[in-house]
Amino acid sequence: MIWNEHHECMEREELRKLQGERIRSMVERVYFNVPFYRRKLQDMGIEPGDIRTIDDLQKLPFTTKQDLRDNYPFGLFAVPQQEIVRLHASSGTTGKSTVVGYTHNDILMWSEVVARSLTMAGISGSDIMQVAYGYGLFTGGLGLHYGAEKIGASVIPISGGNTKKQLQLMVDFGSTAIACTPSYAAYLGEALTEEKIDRKNIKLKAGIFGAEPWTEEMRTQIEQLLGLKAYDIYGLSEVIGPGVSMECWCQNGMHIFEDHFIPEIINPETGELLPYGDLGELVFTPATKEAMPLIRYRTRDLTRLHAEPCECGRTLVRMEKCVGRSDDMLIIRGVNVFPSQIESVLLEMNETKPHYLLVVDRENNLDVLEIQVEVEEQFFSDEVKELEGLRRRIHANIASLLGLSASIRLVEPGTIERSMGKAQRVLDKRKLT
Ligand code: DLL
Fold first, then answer.
1. Is the N or the C terminus of the chain less surrounded, counting Cβ atoms within 10 Å?
2. 134 in ligand 1 pocket by Cβ < 6 Å?
3. Which pLDDT belongs to residue 94?
4. Burial class (CB in 10 A: 0-12, 13-18, 19+), 164
5. Cα distance between residue 83 and residue 314, in whole Å
């Protein structure tokens, strides 16, 4: 089923026309209501009338996270305070958090894109949906909540954490869908076994997992652990929250809701526009937002876009799973590596569990990487020889695929700290000194 067939299956030309109309009116709104943008556009000699079609998008300047920080907290709002009905914020690891605001119409639009996302995963009014993303300033909990209510599902607003209670309600209420981070889903799956809960009592059929990068190997593990079909959902607070893009049943990339969020892929070094299929930084122009419209927002997420038709019938472009964020890339002895690449290598082994930590340090002026990964109980109790064999295989695979020599530490199940929200997979001690 398609939630909004008109917008999700539009002819591409018709969609581009709609996008053009929407950016035209958006640029006018920010020009007259946001001093920051008026100044920026005036400096570039651009007037609202210069933006007429979607082809004019590239004339416009980028917006960065730093611009949001510089205008903290409300400097980029395009409507008076009375029209703001909700505030969310992302907890910045460095500097001030990023604040985003919503009008009543923004909340309606957000609910609509999340409703479309859930429909893509086959979730409907007859489902019981456990929302285990954090509720609060983070957009995950409330974002999924409103979308699930819109499609008429019965929502369990349990938020993140409290794992035993999650499992108890999953059984007692018969949850058929769950939304949380993939790392927490892996933990819930493991806790099911620890609590000796009979799988027959679990009714889950779909999981809506996102907010952090995760690999196909992680998907396989979660699907086995929880006995459901795992779907990827993407989003970021600056653009709206979860529901910017979502996988359909073909699981062939995430469809971007392009009638609201106009995507581009750029070369992160030069800012140059890249064609479909090229790897680069994802940029979004959320053209219909009232409270905080942004022009060409640089997400720092690295991925590719594909425009070939999808079997599901939607004409919206698809984005590949994110490789990671440009600022998450580790440079170890000159080798560029993303945690997700290491995750792929680790989890393709049958003996490993989806819990790992990458510890980067500097010894004698040389970068060193230690990979800690948990090993299934039964393998851990095996002979030392077998464990040593596994350690060597992981080492060799990392070396051959990534060109990196890492020290591998196999640890017992339960050793690595579990996350209830976004997982912290990297401990970069180089940054601490
Ligand atoms: O993480 C919104 C969200 C909530 C998305 C629940 C999906 C589900 P922020 O806290 O602002 O918003 O973080 C946004 O998280 O720029 C990506 O780097 C990362 N991210 C989000 N979804 C995915 C995903 C929410 N499916 C940042 N795959 C983004 C990879 C993701 N990374």
1. C
2. no
3. 58
4. exposed
5. 34
Identify the DSSP state of 253.
S
CA distance 267 to 273: 7
Look up residue 30 and give its two tokens.
Answer: 């920010």
* CATH superfamily, domain at 335-428: ANL, C-terminal domain (3.30.300.30)
What pLDDT is attached to residue 80?
A: 98
Residues 312-339 have pLDDT tens digits of 999 999 999 999 888 889 999 999 999 9
Domain ranges in the chain with CATH number 3.30.300.30 = 335-428
Query: Three-state SS for 354?
Result: strand
Alpha carbons 20 and 18: distance in angstroms, whole number: 5
pLDDT of the residue at 384? 83
pLDDT of residue 92: 63
Task: Give dist(CA 154, CA 4) in Å, integer.
Answer: 21
> How many residues appear in the chain?
433
* Cβ of residue 232 lying under 6 Å from some atom of ligand 1: yes
Maximum Cα–Cα distance for the chain, whole Å?
A: 73
Cα 42 → chain centroid = 34
Instruction: Determine whether the shortest distance from the Cβ of 325 to ligand 1 is under 6 A.
Output: yes
Whether 312 is in the pocket of ligand 1, judged by its Cβ within 6 Å, is no
Q: Is the CB of 236 under 6 A from ligand 1?
A: yes
pLDDT digits (tens, 9 = 90+) for 394-431: 999 999 999 999 999 999 999 999 999 999 999 999 87
Amino acid (one-letter) located at 211: A
Answer whether 213 contacts ligand 1 (Cβ < 6 A).
yes
Q: Determine which residue's CA is closest to atom 16 belonging to ligand 1.
A: 236
In the chain, residues under CATH classification 3.40.50.12780 are 1-327
Class (C level, CATH) for 1-327: alpha beta
Tell me which of 236, 302, 303 to substitute to probe ligand 1's pocket, judged by most ligand atoms within 8 Å of the beta carbon: 236
The residues of the chain scoring below 50 in pLDDT are none
Q: Are 414 and 374 in contact (CB under 8 A)?
A: yes
- Quick one: tokens of 150? 């819109």
pTM confidence score = 0.96
CA-to-CA dists, residue 28 to 50, 79, 196, 252, 286, angstroms: 10, 13, 59, 36, 14
Question: What is the rounded distance in angstroms from the CA atom of residue 163 to the CA atom of residue 334?
Answer: 40
Count of other CB atoms within 10 angstroms of residue 126: 10
